[in-house]
Amino acid sequence: MLDAPITLGLLIANVAISLYALTADVSLINELSFRPRRIEQDGEYYRFFTAGFVHGGMAHLAFNMITLYFFGPLLEGVLGAGAFLILYFGSDLCANALTFAMHRSDPNYGSIGASGAISGVLFAFCLFAPFAKLYVFFAIPMPAILFAVLYVVVSVYAIGQREQGAMGGIAHEAHLGGAVGGVLITIALVPAAVGEFLRAIQQVL
């Protein structure tokens, strides 16, 4: 991990802030969470940044951080530290931007977690290695590109099923926004990623 300083720093920051909020000051979760109505009415734009550093529980935190641990160093090695930092926070911003657009009029909506940023990292990885084998839920083998397609389909479907004002559950719009953002940001940073992706497809076909 020492050769991936940005990933290491993000892991430490996420774990430290989330554990403090979960064990020492639960009110911090609400104070840092992403709340579109509060942002629009009260100008609390800091929530676009802070919501990604608090999680709803140990399982939520562990799943996101394990994913970052496995994929972050690989992408940081390919992109470089600065570009990886842009990818991570850019994906998180895209995730929150879509969430804001969809829930800005909902006074009850709130979300937390680094899932949007992690989605961007995963989909960026798919550009460079679309047929790498992923293990969904750490057990089911699946090519990265198939996982990406299913991920988008499930997220879009779930968004359509969510009731207005519903609390809790999975923030699928954040996953979708982060995934799309991750792909677009990666292409902007490394245009050659498109060629690598197409070559990998052609080799299989």
Report how far apart the termini are: 36 Å
- Helix count equals 10
Q: What value does the Rg take, in angstroms?
A: 17 Å
Biggest sheet: strand arrangement: 1-2
Helix content: over 70%
Mean pLDDT: 88
> Structural class from helices and strands?
mainly alpha
Q: Which spans have pLDDT < 50 for at least 5 consecutive residues?
A: 164-169
Strand count, sense and closure of the main sheet?
2 strands, antiparallel
Percent of residues in beta strands: under 5%
Which word captures the global form?
Answer: globular
Order of helices and strands: HHHHHHHEEHHH
> What's the total number of strands?
2
Description of the structure:
With 205 residues, this protein is mainly alpha-helical. Helices cover 70% and strands 4% of the residues. It has a two-stranded antiparallel sheet. A hairpin with a 3-residue loop joins strand 1 (133-136) and strand 2 (140-143). The chain is globular and about 50 Å long. Residues 164-169 have low confidence and may be disordered.
